[in-house]
Model the fold of this input.
Amino acid sequence: MRGLQGKNVLITGASSGIGQAIAVRFAQEGAHVAVNYYKGEAEAKATIEQMHAASKAAGIAPGSLKDMTVQANVAKEEDVAIMFDKVISNFGGLDILINNAGMQIQGASHEIPLDQFDRMIDINMRGAFLCARKAIAHFLDHGGGVIVNDSSVHELIPRPEYVGYTMSKSGLRGMTRTLALEYARDNIRINSFAPGATLTPINPWKDDPQRKADIESHIPMGRAGTSEEMAAVAAFLASDDAAYITGQTIFIDGGLTLFPSFRTPWTG
Ligand code: BGC
Done:
């Protein structure tokens, strides 16, 4: 993809799942990648190993790409500030932020513990905003930049028993569109990609053949998506191939959001 080579990228929550696949994809594209993690230090290091293997396989000279792991709780303003300082001083700048860190919990809306609800909003929505504003402040001083947010089909469609999750992702939709408009004249683009049912650790059903088959039977394309399929769109949105796209969400869901049935995969 055009314009990713030599760019400095920070990916939050890149120690597993979609974030990890995005890190690997950017390394293949010749970008310098900072892998943020909260608790999974060993997993973040494993991401770096995978990045090395991927860039080597892509014909990039070993050692020519910079990379780093960086610990931070994205919900904490102080952690975020320290993380940005470390990445910017180590890489000499930042061009692309991927807001990927997130969590999800399930429970009846009238019963769900408020501390869990608060934590999810803090990480999925407030965390994305804390990182976005830090990135934007830097971009404004350096001629521009790109933000890509990992949203969900549930930024648009409801999901019973996941009220905090749907609220956080709807909030992300509002943030993406608002920031895109606010900074459209500053060479800063902000977009989201919205995964449907994806084979990642956030979805334990991926390892339960019966539940997986049931969920997949409700997806128009008949299968769940992969982290690599999400990473490809994240890379596209960050690249110069998407130079005229801002404030948009690309749904990567095998047709899930087209499905007219009330019996949805998440109730199946
Ligand atoms: C959720 C998954 C779910 C998918 C489709 C995603 O945002 O993280 O748990 O399978 O949406 O409902």
In short: The pocket of beta-D-glucopyranose is lined by residues 104, 152-154, 159, 195-197, 202-203, 265-266 (CB under 6 Å). The radius of gyration is 18 Å. The chain has one domain: 8-258. The domain at 8-258 is CATH 3.40.50.720 (Rossmann fold).
